[in-house]
Amino acid sequence: MYDSFGENITETTSAIAEANNAIFAINGDYYGFRDTGIVIRNGVVFRDEGARQGLAFYRDGTVKVYDETSTTAEQLLADGVWNTLSFGPSLLDNGEIAAGIEDVEVDTNFGNHSIQGEQPRTAVGIIDENHLVFVVVDGRSPGYSAGVTMTGLAEIMQGLGATTAYNIDGGGSSTMYFNGGLVNNPLGENKERGTSDILYIAG
């Protein structure tokens, strides 16, 4: 299951992390929730339907936001890309908050969905070469955490020193795992929702 690809294959972030001996993990882009985007995992192309801003992880450690509609999966592989995420939007451009991030909608197999307002969020930031920062913000939990707007998330990433930052799947999917347990409290219920994929660091 953990090495399968498909729209209806899901498992919790913790379960996928434990199956891969991960020390740290966050939820990924939930590629199974849509049938567009460029999906590359460990150098293997699973989908090549450019539709939005993507995040590319290169073999040399470089991480960049790119326009999926201006390239192909094969070209990305030729350029040294090893993994991609397809969600967005980009939050920071050269350290400055990106324009228009409060107007972005997420396209899914069930139509477009607004991701605005205060919501649980997950993001990846790049501070320097081989220096990443991962942020998960809880939300939708009265008395605990309301969540954060897209601009607020960008400000958090900016405050942590990121020059590039990228939003990935949030809401009930937003999960951070470390050393065998949950760090955050998803939706204030301490209960994880299944997702298609994760980002993890193994020992």
UniProtKB/TrEMBL annotation:
Pfam families: NAGPA (PF09992)
Domain Phosphodiester glycosidase, residue spans: 20-201
InterPro entries: NAGPA
PANTHER family to which the protein is assigned, alphabetical: N-ACETYLGLUCOSAMINE-1-PHOSPHODIESTER ALPHA-N-ACETYLGLUCOSAMINIDASE
Protein name, as recorded: Phosphodiester glycosidase domain-containing protein
Source organism of this protein record: Pseudarthrobacter chlorophenolicus (strain ATCC 700700 / DSM 12829 / CIP 107037 / JCM 12360 / KCTC 9906 / NCIMB 13794 / A6)
